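Appendix B: a complete holo record

For completeness, this appendix reproduces one full record from the ligand-bound portion of the collection. The bound molecule is S-adenosylmethionine. The inputs are the chain sequence and the ligand SMILES; the output is the full three-dimensional arrangement of the complex, encoded as structure tokens. No fields have been trimmed.
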Amino acid sequence: MQLAHLQAIKPLCAVCLGQGSQNPIALSRRDLGDESQVQQGLLQCGVCGMEYPIIDGIPILLPKLREWVQGSLFHLVKRQDLSHSLDSLLGDCCGPDAAWENTRATLSTYGWDHWGEYLDVQDLACPPGAVRTLSQRLTELLPAKPGPLLDVGCGPGGSTHSLALAHPERLVVGVDMNFSLLQAGLRILEGTGELPLRQEGVVHHWHPARQPEKAPNLALWCADARLLPFAAGSFGGASSLNLVDSVDQPLQHLLELARVLEEGGSAWLSTPFDWSTRATPMAQWLGAHSQRGDHGGDSRKVFLGMIQRGILPLHLRAEAAGEWRLRTGSRSHTRYQVWLAALEKGEQFAAAETGL
Ligand SMILES: C[S@@+](CC[C@H](N)C(=O)[O-])C[C@H]1O[C@@H](n2cnc3c(N)ncnc32)[C@H](O)[C@@H]1O
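The structure of the chain with S-adenosylmethionine bound, as generated:
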């Protein structure tokens, strides 16, 4: 974590939200790393005293830190120095439903899409870079307003990297709650990363990644899309790519996305609306049920209805369809047609804008 990024973005305490203080979070301890790049240490809220760890260069700014540490301990203490043959043997012993395999499979799928172009591997059936293309299309539909940019649910950070390369003068912050994905993204950015590519079952092959183009103003932080640790109006643009149906409180996430945007800021949304109770309780789905209603169960219409009713302080400026492919194995991939929506933060809304 670069101290300059902390000073530029001035995150709020995820517990007390700063209670009006301008810059309540500061570095209280540096255990590893230098002043500009802290690898291990502690941040502390100057108002309530809450401590937040920095682990492997990633500040963890979460409201329910204890709960997250207990659930993520495997990711936090997982060894990184095992040979590929031991990695494979441990995978065989643990089997397909274990954290070991889930972590590798998730890294394989998202790592490939975000960073596959930096591996010496080809997959003609499922080329990498779909999420980067979605991000680029959205910023073409509605360019960024001045100010820092945010990529919520950034996974291993390929879309954050694309945003940072397109806006080299801006600070671009990617946030996610999956520590292994953030860690893998940071390693690749530093030029020391490698990724497992799933063949089938629990068989994975590891590949080193070439160092991507440098993006010095890029930060990958661990934060919750349902309670973003940023002051209202902190960002000129914020993306939520394929996250709305992966979070357990989608409306709360969208309200947070709008809150951290400045007036006139751009919200870039991509979603396949592929609801599942594994990620989101049905009561929280935006559409995809109650087809007898005016919206016919169409999630897009439910979303636009929330704008029309003034629940979400966003205007729809442009929409499009996009393709999102995810590689799940050497012979399998999933292909979605996603809804792309470019929205602008504003207090007012007009029924005509929603097209309903
Ligand atoms: C379907 S993946 C999409 C990742 C990436 N945006 C993409 O399009 O490739 C959803 C991501 O959201 C993250 N996520 C889920 N719930 C979250 C939350 N409450 N806060 C932050 N990230 C979350 C997951 O860890 C995962 O990386």
